[in-house]
## 1
Amino acid sequence: GENVEQHPSTLSVQEGDSAVIKCTYSDSASNYFPWYKQELGKRPQLIIDIRSNVGEKKDQRIAVTLNKTAKHFSLHITETQPEDSAVYFCAASYSSASKIIFGSGTRLSIRP
Amino acid sequence: DAGITQSPRHKVTETGTPVTLRCHQTENHRYMYWYRQDPGHGLRLIHYSYGVKDTDKGEVSDGYSVSRSKTEDFLLTLESATSSQTSVYFCAISESQGSNQPQHFGDGTRLSIL
């Protein structure tokens, strides 16, 4: 079945350094890739998304890259800050239905 | 923030009892989704709706049913609750087809089955 793999499951970086989270997907027809941030006890919130007609998208300190040939996409956070500590989820659209499949999440911790 | 209200926010109940969770939206969005979130599994789709009275199964639909009698409300029912259904349940909405548009989440319902 359709699947989204996300790595790493946990990530700890020094404040000010960069963080990278990687995801791979199995459905070659997937064309929409959102990223969500979830703080402890809160709801997932969309932070950035990308569609298959572009290879990269940036929003301030956050960027997402997409490689359709290899079927993987990545989230890059630069100049990390304490408020970036959260669980991050990638997702990919599922071509045969009106839904998306989520990765299992990455717990990002920012060390002061 | 998207106008999504989930109720109740917390519930504790016993094995074998029926449970209904409600998702109410004020955005007039066509698509609504129910997910469960468990450690190590991310968000898994239970059921979704693409219009009034139009629903379909997700990847973990066994033991759950849904109903959507009007645009703003999407109900999730656990027909006979089991301990394996202890989880956090999130509702989400999207304006158009969810495979190409952002989904926005409610605040979740924490359900414990004893």
## 2
Amino acid sequence: EAGVTQFPSHSVIEKGQTVTLRCDPISGHDNLYWYRRVMGKEIKFLLHFVKESKQDESGMPNNRFLAERTGGTYSTLKVQPAELEDSGVYFCASSQASGIGENIQYFGAGTRLSVL
Amino acid sequence: GIQVEQSPPDLILQEGANSTLRCNFSDSVNNLQWFHQNPWGQLINLFYIPSGTKQNGRLSATTVATERYSLLYISSSQTTDSGVYFCAVERSVGDYKLSFGAGTTVTVRA
């Protein structure tokens, strides 16, 4: 069974440009999460989808970030326009749990974003 | 929010040595996971362990939820154990989001 896959693995863009990151969760996982790690800091939560609905977007830094999960399958995270401080590694994770069950999150390899 | 502290920040081991990594958290948790970040950047699940003890090969983990800490043991370390080890917690049922510690960077020398 395929794990969480993310594309691209690395993106280098100039300040002011737009970048779109993609995440394909594990098949059958309703929960999808985005996290990011900026230089020297901890991995931080960005948002959580349950199927196609945004359950929690409390970690989104500002309105330059837009996440979508049309159809409840793959998700995209768009940064527009990108700023220097957006550089870092963006991780996607997915989990199967609902309600009070075990919520084991499985992570992808991340997309390393460099904004120059 | 919940605070997660990992120690030590860096650890250098000789191949074959044993080690213990620690994760302290500031509040009760519903979920605790240990991850190993491999050289390609992927976060690999090691344990889901909100309480109790689990073992998987040379790795084992113990979480004492009442005292708000978890330990990850690496025995007979190998060079492939090198990388960053993260502890992450989910604060309460239905919270879902994980709060991560800063990680412990382990270097195993041949």
## 3
Amino acid sequence: EVQLVQSGAEVKKPGESLKISCKGSGYSFTSYWIGWVRQMPGKGLEWMGIIYPGDSDTRYSPSFQGQVTISADKSISTAYLQWSSLKASDTAMYYCARGGLGARPDYWGQGALVTVSS
Amino acid sequence: EIVLTQSPGTLSLSPGERATLSCRASQSISSSYLAWYQQKPGQAPRLLIYDASSRATGIPDRFSGSGSGTDFTLIISRLEPEDFAVYYCQQYGSSPPAWTFGQGTKVEIK
């Protein structure tokens, strides 16, 4: 069974760093893209970027380029989304999703809520 | 960058009625790489339709998708109480890999 399990909720202060994770299981982790999606409170879905763990090819949405870093550790089938300096506006739910044929998202993680507040 | 525009923003209907949701792209979507998702409060998005018209595993046949090029439609033939939710269209592709979401259509109980 394909599963993407994300790390838990985080509460951080502005200026702090953070790295959240997404662990894949039940499939060949290196053969599928993993994308990240932001959903701010009460708002829609926004694509942030995508990584191919097999060769670490990473692409970012122009809106998120330079704001976050996406990485993956194929030895433990885990993708990451990280911030070096959080802002209050980073408060959101973050989802990872597997990109199947044509990079189509076919399986989603349960989401990780990030709250940034002083 | 492709922009997806969904209409209407909100659809107020009664159970048993037919829902028609629209998604228009700013440029032609290759290979009909267009998906539809349902999202309920506190839940992750659920894939309903992929490649514009293929139902995902376990999705009831009252959900159907159609369209090509720049105009796509999701139809829910007879609304069940559990269908009241927000629906998003999404464009995907692998050359280069990128995703784009529409802003969503809320289907609410009238």
